[in-house]
């Protein structure tokens, strides 16, 4: 059975890389949700676009319909409330549409997992801008969905050399290649990595 994947934030830096990986490595159908989705050049045999804001409930529910997995590559770096509000609206729509699998990107540092000797300035205790990522993660963790949280560090170009850590473990670096983030997401979608109800740190 062909899977239908809803990718939120599909035109952003992370979303674009995830989209590219899924197109290359799977035969799944992709729904590309973004405020700028109408500017994307798509494979009409496999992709549909939804040009809307995630706060547009009607548009979000329409995109959710008949989706099997939701991937969020959204970001909201300067607001305590914005990402947590997005997370809650996403959960509400998923439950309304009977979808259980969610892969949701937050950020490295929300558990103070970056050792000081590496560069601890992005730990939540040192960076108040991380609070919105932590709040969103907590909402997802309490959602009763089959979730995986992704915690990349600073996104850079580079090879796929992902090192994965679990919640409660320190990370060994504060940078993450886009190719590694996309590869881990692809492996979660295809069950090559389980990741059920886990929070995965990803770094070089």
Description:
The protein has one domain: NAD(P)-binding Rossmann-like Domain (Rossmann fold, 3-Layer(aba) Sandwich), CATH 3.40.50.720. Helices cover 31% and strands 23% of the residues. α1 crosses α6. The termini are far apart. The mean pLDDT is 95.
Brief description of this entry?
The chain contains six helices and ten strands. It has helices spanning 13-25, 57-64, 82-96, 116-119, 131-141, 178-189; strands at 4-8, 29-34, 47-51, 69-72, 101-105, 146-152, 154-156, 163-165, 175-177, 198-203. Strand 1 (4-8), helix 1 and strand 2 form a beta-alpha-beta unit.
What labels would you give this structure?
two-stranded parallel ribbon, Rossmann fold, alpha/beta, 204 residues
Which helices and strands appear, and what pairs or packs with what?
Blueprint (H helix, E strand, L loop, with lengths): L3 E5 L4 H13 L3 E6 L12 E5 L5 H8 L4 E4 L9 H15 L4 E5 L10 H4 L11 H11 L4 E7 L1 E3 L6 E3 L9 E3 H12 L8 E6 L1
Parallel strand pairs: 1-2, 1-4, 2-3, 4-5, 5-6, 6-10, 7-9
Antiparallel strand pairs: 8-10
Helix pairs in contact: 1-6, 2-3, 3-5
Helix content: 25-40%
Total number of beta strands: 10
Look at the structure and give the mean pLDDT.
Answer: 95
- What is the level-2 CATH architecture name? 3-Layer(aba) Sandwich
- The low-confidence parts are none
Major sheet size, sense and barrel closure: 8 strands, mixed
Net shape:
globular
Structural class: alpha/beta
Please write the CATH class name. Alpha Beta
- CATH homology-level superfamily: NAD(P)-binding Rossmann-like Domain
Radius of gyration over C-alpha positions, nearest whole angstrom: 16 Å
Ends apart, CA distance between termini: 34 Å
Number of discrete helical segments: 6
What is the name of the CATH topology? Rossmann fold
What is the oligomeric state here?
A: single chain
| Number of discrete domains | 1
Placed side by side, the strands forming the largest sheet appear as 3-2-1-4-5-6-10-8
Proportion of residues in β-strands = 15-25%
Give the SSE order as H and E letters.
EHEEHEHEHHEEEEHE
